[in-house]
Amino acid sequence: MKSGTDKKDVLKRFWGYDSFRPLQEEIIDSLLQGFDTLALLPTGGGKSICYQLPSLMIDGMCLVVSPLISLMKDQVQQLRDHGIRAACLVSGATSIEQEIVYNNCIHGKIKILYVSPERLKQQVFIEHFRQMKVAFIAVDEAHCISQWGYDFRPSYLEIAKIRAFHPDIPILALTATATPHVADDIRHQLMFASNSRMFQSSFHRPNLAYMVFHEENKVGRLLRIANNVGGSGIVYVRNRRRTREIADQLVANGISATYYHAGLEPKARDTAQRRWMQGEVRVIVATNAFGMGIDKPDVRYVVHMDIPSSVEAYFQEAGRAGRDGKKSFAVLLYNDTDIITLQQNFENSYPSRKHIANIYRAICNYYQLPVGSGTDCQFDFNLEALCSTYNFNLMEFYSATRLLEREGLISFPELDQSQSRIYIPLSREEVYRFQVSQPRYSDLMALLLRMYGGLFADFVPISEQALAKRLYFEPNQIRNMLLHMDALKAIAYRPKPTKPQIIFTSPRVDADSLYLNESNYTELKQRATERLEAIQHYVLSDHDCRSQMLLAYFGETSATPCGACDYCIQQKKTSSPAAADEIATQQREQLLSLLKEKPYRAEELVEKVGNIDEEQVRQLLHEMVDQHLVTINHLLQFEAL
Selecting from 1.10.10.10, 2.30.170.40, 1.10.1200.10, 3.40.50.1820, what CATH number does the domain 344-415+500-527 have? Predict the structure, then answer.
């Protein structure tokens, strides 16, 4: 597509939209004019179109750097479905797969290439990158480059280095969560030109009511929210086991629900996500592994049953409610134990440098990797087995592996959610000779060529089940035949992984000389301490508007009180006796209406109403007894007179 093509025509042709979302067009114009650009857009603000669309309007390709491997794959598939040539390079790709992608990029057959930040320091990438015609670089989740950010990844620092190979192209940095300090650091770390531009959409969500409640009976409160708010919801917990327990409790109380966490098999995760997205179930209970890239517009509430690790994480997760602009709720439930647990989890998240080195040594020994080897080696990963073998604390071990991942030594890709893949490295004449010399595989090879296009150009997703059905075989027989054909070099067959994976993204280093800079580690922990204090302040504060607190954290200090959060509602009650009386009257009428239908115990009424605290319900009931509006029967139930 030639430069000068109308942006709205491209938007309509490839995405079907008639108009841009706020700031999208300005960001695209800035990029097309060659300016380094920082875009701060809230979750759901449409960041991806800001680089996908301009890549179609100018010569050359767009390199997208993103840490979200599963999201990369989803976006590549969506782009291909729209007729846009896209590819991704992620850890675990074989040398054949990589070479195919590199060659397609060099020869102009790819418009958008997604890579993980760890890829940028590999010499094979640099050699090919220098030969590509790159129009611009897009950096997704750009806050990861800032050492002041909540999710700093050292590998992001490689982005500025590769600018030297294409010094005249602009960079577009995108993020949904950046404080003013982080925004400045992003521009500094990416070596933005002095005339760079920044576009920031307000993080204000007028339709979203933020609520924080001290609650001992969290499930009871959740049930009231689900029953009274209705619609679709997300419930976040920090414990995988709790996802299923809470989902089961919702189902037992007549609310359709499912659960999701990273430890589930890919098929189970896909099924849970699909059922929720399509409205087959109302609620999905999940860990923070769920939600990135999800754009379900009609989520009426997001409930956090545990305190998130940072304001940034909370804001991003809560922001998945109400994307359609309708009234929605972000509710955080906590008790005194949660505050203690939050502090303990924080301490376990920063084991000593010596302990991290010991864990790194144990991992390398477990997989029998000699010093200096291991780059791109991929293995099944069983966290519990490793901890058991070396007698490590599970949480400390997990935290250490995440710190090692941030240092670019290892990575943990999500299980490939696509199908098995096949590539044919032969010419058509060589395929024919193979079929003649290996008649056992002739029918299968012929069926592959009939069912799947592009096998000679790239790895193509295939289904062993579909092949088996056509040839009247069992799927395992087809898998074995494909493995034999791979051994004969007739195909390159990549079965779908079925277990979590670990990838060594750098050669093994001697653990005694493992570089974890002491001052950097100390600063990292200090900034994490500040984020911990910020989320604790948000939870425990009882004298500020919730929306104002969140906006101020991200640099918007002129916001007015929202009028809809728990603090603002309480202020209305205390500042205006008339308003408080009106609210109390409405609450009494609500309770009386229920009691006219049938008698209820006090705790049953608490479960039935979602907009009144338990203490208020009991106080109102006793007032109504004194006023001879209700009475208490022999079953200790309240009933209307």
Answer: 1.10.10.10
